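Key result, reporting period 2: structure in, sequence out.
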């Protein structure tokens, strides 16, 4: 069985920063990433706004990921891509699946930096059919920015968090019509800078106190029935795409069997959006580097 001082699960911003800091502290570090390259969600982000606080530079998400990936590969940390961690055990071992099959790793500490999950359209409980064209914002980013596909031409965007705002801008910048951005609350969410940079220049219609109450269409979505939560009035917005940006949930799937008493074992640490949802990647990086450095001081060499 292989051994490492610190196993890092997830190669996004948090995982890369934690692995880099722990490695620089002189510990044996193994970072495992299920995708073919590190970067996580950053690899889908072609917009700027990353690194302003931590690096003093205005980078795209892809550039930010590349900056840390380059440093990580030059460090002593071992990076394995295309590797999925299937389970963690109380005896401080992990079962992993890679290109050559299943294998186990024993470790002193484990940093779980698995990121977060989007709330799915199905979890929102909107009545209607489930035609093509109903996507989460993250899926739309993946299709457009990674796969080079078109997610839709006349979208309605449900939710005004940062990802929803950024996708609204991306559609508008490419000449497509954003039918409306819908928000149940009395104000737009997201960071102030995103509200200013994503909505105002493109005159995107924003409907506050509004909920989607029905999805219309059979093979492809044709519209969304919405309700004004103050008046109760309903009407139909005709569209070919519904982008849901309903929020994020920390991905702690690997913790489920490790918390019989509701507490994490002392060898496991949560990091980044897996620990709590952050507004900006700079704070994720800063906290992850502090965690990696701290465990680097604790973890003894075998």
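The corresponding designed sequence is given below.
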């Amino acid at each position: 069985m292989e051994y490492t001082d610190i196993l890092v699960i997830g190669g996004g911003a948090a995982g890369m920063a934690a692995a880099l800091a722990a490695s620089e502290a002189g510990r044996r570090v193994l970072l495992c990433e299920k995708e073919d390259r590190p970067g996580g969600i950053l690899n889908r982000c072609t917009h700027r706004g990353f690194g302003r606080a931590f690096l003093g530079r205005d980078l795209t998400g892809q550039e930010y990921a590349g900056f840390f990936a380059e440093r990580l590969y030059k460090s002593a940390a071992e990076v394995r891509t295309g590797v999925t961690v299937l389970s963690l055990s109380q005896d401080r071992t992990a079962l992993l699946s890679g290109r050559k099959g299943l294998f186990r790793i024993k470790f002193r500490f484990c940093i779980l930096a698995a990121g977060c999950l989007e709330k799915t359209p199905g979890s929102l409980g909107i009545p209607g059919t489930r035609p093509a064209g109903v996507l989460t914002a993250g899926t739309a980013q993946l299709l457009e920015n990674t796969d080079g596909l078109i997610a839709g031409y006349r979208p309605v965007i449900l939710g005004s968090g940062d990802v929803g705002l950024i996708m609204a801008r991306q559609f508008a910048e490419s000449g497509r019509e954003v039918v409306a951005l819908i928000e149940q609350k009395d104000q737009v969410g997201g960071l102030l800078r995103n509200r200013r940079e994503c909505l105002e220049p493109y005159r995107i219609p924003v409907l506050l106190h509004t909920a989607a109450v029905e999805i219309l269409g059979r093979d492809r979505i044709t519209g969304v029935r919405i309700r004004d939560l103050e008046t109760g009035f309903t009407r139909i917005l005709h569209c070919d795409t519904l982008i849901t940006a309903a929020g994020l949930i920390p991905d702690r799937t690997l913790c489920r069997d490790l918390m019989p008493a509701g507490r994490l074992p002392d060898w496991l640490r949560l990091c980044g959006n897996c620990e709590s949802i952050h507004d900006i990647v700079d704070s994720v990086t800063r906290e992850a580097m502090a965690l990696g450095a701290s465990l680097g001081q604790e973890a003894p060499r075998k």
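The chain has six helices and 19 strands. The mean pLDDT is 93. This case is discussed further under Risks and Mitigation.
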